[in-house]
Write a structure and sequence with these properties.
279 residues
Amino acid sequence: MKNFLIGIGGTGAKCIEHLVHTCSAGLGPDQLWVGMVDQDEANGNVNKTKILLNKYISLRNKLREEGKNDLSNESNLFKTNITTDPDAVWIPLPGADPTLKAVVNYNALKTEVKGLLNCLYDPTEQQLPLSEGFRGRPNIGAAAMLATAANENSKFWSQIHKAIDAARGGEEVRIFIIGSIFGGTGASGFPNIARKIRAIQEEKSVTSNVHIGGALMLPYFDYDVPDDIDDGTIFAKPNQFLDQTKAALIGIARGDWFGTGLGGGIQKFKALPERHTDM
């Protein structure tokens, strides 16, 4: 059996961090591949978790190296063989400072498609520099992830492709996805990454042995917003986390992982911070 864990955004990275400590205590599976997803390359949680993973792997190799330590083979400490890659962080939109408008090549779109885009995203959202993440806007994150191919050239997606190939060969593959339900990266990545994995399955004609599960974290932190920031700048607003969480839970309850389709949500009929996105 192959186990894969995908942590989305800062919350996903923090969950991986806690799991690594659990594995060091001997409470993890025998084998685990870990990957992360975040548009913000400078995310402190992601970088901290990458360092922790490298330290775990290094320490485990030393403790488990036969004849060079006093750790018994019967001991469960550090039993989990965690594998990852320094580049196993998928950045949906790599580049200096991508914007949604540039990603969809707005100027080349047909008039009616431009009209649809303008309905879904206001001008500020279209021009938002995304090098620091999706700023609590899952509608932007969803578009960014859907616009990016899950190709085998990516260190992150190459492992998923290998996992699907293993499933085709008869091996059981378990993929677990974790992130926040209230943020931009987690809420947008949770369904879209699962959708991409299912697409790879269909592409490779793999209909069994792949089990996808996941967990979404509810709001668990707060922070003060500076008084002088309310100038039209887009940023994650903690006072909207609960509203976004309620809307997301309704959406998942009605549409499962993949939603009800464009315009099919009912959350727009309630008071929402981002009514046009059901969030």
